[in-house]
Amino acid sequence: MKMKIRVCQGVSGIIIVTMVTGFMLVYNSSSGGRPPSSMASSASSSSRRVDGAVPSTTKPERRQRDQTSTLEGYTGVMDHKPLKMHCRTCALVTSSGHLTGSKRGGEIDSSDCVIRMNDAPSIGYQQDVGQRTSLRVIAHSSLQRVLRSRQELLNVSQDTAFIFWGPSSLMRRDGKGNVYNHLKLLNQLLPKLKVYIISRNKMLKFDELFKKETGVDRKSSNSWLSTGWFTMAIALELCDRTNVFGMVPPNFCRSSSHPSVPYHYYEPSGPDECTMYLSHERSRRGSHHRFITEKKVFANWARTHNIHFYQPDWKPTAVATNTNSSYTPGS
């Protein structure tokens, strides 16, 4: 059995080397991964902006570097240093089919920072989801998909920070962490990439946070935190204001009149979003995401933090003061 595991890991490593080295010439000969000059002009000329997204003549990336904060728990794969990043306004772009036809792209790109998840693409969808990416939060299970889309997600993203999350058994640094080993190899081959992982202690804090906010123990309830959970929590540490695009309110899928949209905007023939949410929420066998439970927490956070929801546009309903979250980002 050990031999089989080693063989599988070895083959996986060879696949990653082959996939990455196959486009290194393109990567190294590119213009540094910067977005085309037309991007900034299209963003600044957009007539639709969320409240608080004030136009500026300063380039968003420049503004992002001028003011940095150290975010503990997100460590560089190669140098083991913490992530240093701060954004005044953030557009957190979900992968929801609600973004299809939204034409929110210019609005999204006008933010100081744009946050995306997993392998969600922007090429071909710029009008609805924008084209800039400042931070991408990626699940361990999405690594191979990101590599398959490497020419978009990696080649043009040299100024993008990548945060990978996963079980500590896959992220350990002693040579036995399969995902960490692959990320280290990737970063050795592409040293310009800013690759980070969520530390074991930080992952435990996220588990504690879920239990504190919901009263439910993640492990005993056979739940996996979603990439959306990590991304929202990271945004609270990173951003002064977070504008979330494509996230529905907690009770949206309970209504019989809710529209049917695909789970991912880039998979129009894929599963229905609400069907996915409800099936995961109701399941008690196997490990599942608690999408609706998480959205209740996000709505609660929005009552006390600078979080706003668009596409669909909604605000959390008022509740009694003693039910509000006491969560402090970075605590």
From TrEMBL:
It is a single-pass type II membrane protein. One of its GO terms (biological process) is ganglioside biosynthetic process. It catalyses: a ganglioside GD1a (d18:1(4E)) + CMP-N-acetyl-beta-neuraminate = a ganglioside GT1aalpha (d18:1(4E)) + CMP + H(+); 3-O-[alpha-Neu5Ac-(2->3)-beta-D-Gal-(1->3)-alpha-D-GalNAc]-L-Thr-[protein] + CMP-N-acetyl-beta-neuraminate = a 3-O-{alpha-Neu5Ac-(2->3)-beta-D-Gal-(1->3)-[alpha-Neu5Ac-(2->6)]-alpha-D-GalNAc}-L-threonyl-[protein] + CMP + H(+); N-acetyl-alpha-neuraminosyl-(2->3)-beta-D-galactosyl-(1->3)-N-acetyl-beta-D-glucosaminyl-(1->3)-beta-D-galactosyl-(1->4)-beta-D-glucosyl-(1<->1')-N-acyl-sphing-4-enine + CMP-N-acetyl-beta-neuraminate = N-acetyl-alpha-neuraminosyl-(2->3)-beta-D-galactosyl-(1->3)-[N-acetyl-alpha-neuraminosyl-(2->6)]-N-acetyl-beta-D-glucosaminyl-(1->3)-beta-D-galactosyl-(1->4)-beta-D-glucosyl-(1<->1')-N-acyl-sphing-4-enine + CMP + H(+); a ganglioside GM1b (d18:1(4E)) + CMP-N-acetyl-beta-neuraminate = a ganglioside GD1alpha (d18:1(4E)) + CMP + H(+). Its main location: Golgi. Residues 31-74 are annotated as: Disordered. Belongs to the glycosyltransferase 29 family. Gene3D superfamilies: Glycosyl transferase family 29. Residues 31-47 have a biased composition (Low complexity). One of its GO terms (molecular function) is alpha-N-acetylgalactosaminide alpha-2,6-sialyltransferase activity. GO terms for cellular component: Golgi membrane. The keyword Glycosyltransferase applies. InterPro entries: Glyco_trans_29, GT29-like_sf. This is Alpha-N-acetylgalactosaminide alpha-2,6-sialyltransferase 6. The keyword Disulfide bond applies. It is found in: Golgi apparatus membrane. Keywords: Disulfide bond, Glycoprotein, Glycosyltransferase, Golgi apparatus, Lipid metabolism, Membrane, Sialic acid, Signal-anchor, Transferase, Transmembrane, Transmembrane helix. It comes from the Eukaryota. The chain crosses the membrane at residues 7-27.
